Structure formats: C-alpha cells, structure tokens
Amino acid sequence: MKLPKRKFVQLFFALLANTNVSFLWQKALYRGPFKGVCFPGLNCYSCPAALFACPLGALQQSLASLRLLGTQAVSAITYVVGSIVLFGLFMGRIVCGWVCPFGLLQELLYKIRTQKFACPRILYYVKYILLVFFVIVLPITLVSEIGYGKVWFCRLVCPAGTLEAGLFNLALRPELSALVKSLFYWKIALLITVLTLCVFYFRFFCKVLCPLGLIYGLFNKVGFFKLKWQNRACLDCDICEKVCPMGLKIPEELNSVECIRCLNCLKGCPAKVIELEFSLILTERFDSRKSIGKRKLCAKTDEGLTK
C-alpha cells in the first residue's frame, strides 16, 4: 500500500485541531465538551480556533493545582498522563512527524532557500531540563499563598502558545493590548528566535526545546509502531542516513528518542531493508561497530558473488 503524502496528513491534523470557526463572530475561546479532550500534538488550549486541549499544557495545569485541589487534581493528572501514555504507546513520535501542527510550521519554514546547518547534539538535552523542571517540578513546588502553581513552560517558553494564543487573541481583540507586560515581549522575542532558527535548522524546536516530543520519543522503543532493519539485505549505500532530516545514525538510532517517524528512510531505501512493524516486542539494540561491520561484510560478499 502506498503511503500517503505526509504534508497532507500534517495539514489535515492541523485543521482538525483548529476547527472552531465560531471564534470569528463570538471572539472567544471554545469551551465545549471537546476542550476536555487532549489533542496529541502541541496545539495551544488558548488558541481561539482550538477545539481540543494541549496535553503538555493540561499536564502543567493539573500539577499546578495539586496542592489546592487535592484529589480532584489527582484525577486530572491521571487522565492527562493516561492520555499521553496511550498516545505514546500507539504512536510514539509519529505524533511529531505526522500530527503536530507546530511541527508542520517548522518544516514549512525550513523549506525557505538558504544555507542549512546541523544542530549540535549537546543542545538536545535542553528539552530534558525543560521537561523535568518547567513542566513537572516548578508547577508543583512554586505555588502561591493559596497553593496554586503556574504553567511555567507555557508561561516562559512555549512559542506555539505565543503564536496561537498571544498574537492570535491580540489580533482578534485589540483591547487586550492594555494587559501586555514585559513577559509578553520576552515571549515574542523567543518566538521570533525559534522561528528564525527553524529556517536554518530542521525542526529546531523539536530537537532542542519540546518536552512533549521527548515524552513521545521515550515510547519509540516500546510502542506499537517500530522501525525494523533487515541487516542481511543492506547495500551499505547510506541513503537512509542521507534522507533522515533528524540526522540520525541508522540502524543504531532507528527507534531512538529523536526519531520522528517521518519514514524517509523506509521510502528511500532501494533494498527495502527498513520496515514499519506493529508489535509490542522491544526493539533490537544495535552495536554500531558490529552493525556497520556486518553491512560492509555483506557488501563485500555481494561484490565477490558478482565477479
């Protein structure tokens, strides 16, 4: 079966997440029953067009209210974490590669013709810090006198929220400009910086700053959908690595945290060595030296047989 064009799938989900057209005349957020459902990708709850909740924002919100609401907050946390786990198990970072609206925006920006660069791998660990402290620790520990915390990642970092909620709401309701403070200008500066970097670095936000993508990436090895590499058939042509937009080493990093499941490697492999399988079995761990050695040995064997 021929795989669908990824961009059309991404556009479909971006539109699905933002189908609340009533904001055009109501000039207000949608607060109906769908807003209690988490959308898999990063899509701001406060966007006027958003139909669903953002799982990352919902997680921070429920953690921030833990001391104040007690058991009610625990129920909310259970629901949100359960939703994220289900998304992770069934899709992993397929969410990032095929579903997330902000991922689509980053890829469109990267299409702008200019010199491109490889993102330093050391920066990939920034999103681990953001997940632990800004998403989990700070909302629980830094609370007001009444016991309510803040959504620190949304408040200080998330560029999707600035674009979809901050700027969109200001355009829709200019009177909100009276509420703008210095924090908003920080978020605007960060948004411009991230979007600019996305022109030069493929999915800069996903690689460096996105805690949600990190969470889903942790399920890549244990989820239902995994990439499988057939060692014996490999031609050692390295096309899979050349077409990987995330710059991953293949096969060692096929199911790594950074793999967004774009399937470029699967479609680009001339020998069809890479497959997408549906299984709960843990993925094979590759030793880079052994796998590369085997690939070269296979290539030499094939060369000898043709002589």
UniProtKB/TrEMBL annotation:
Gene Ontology annotations for the cellular component aspect, listed alphabetically: plasma membrane
Annotated ranges, domain 4Fe-4S ferredoxin-type: 225-247, 250-279
Gene Ontology terms for molecular function: 4 iron, 4 sulfur cluster binding; metal ion binding
Residue ranges crossing the lipid bilayer per the database entry: 76-104, 125-144, 184-204
Keywords: 4Fe-4S, Electron transport, Iron, Iron-sulfur, Membrane, Metal-binding, Transmembrane, Transmembrane helix, Transport
Pfam families: Fer4_5
Keyword Zinc: no
PANTHER family: FERREDOXIN-TYPE PROTEIN NAPH (PTHR30176)
Protein's recorded name: 4Fe-4S ferredoxin
The organism of origin for this protein: Thermodesulfatator autotrophicus
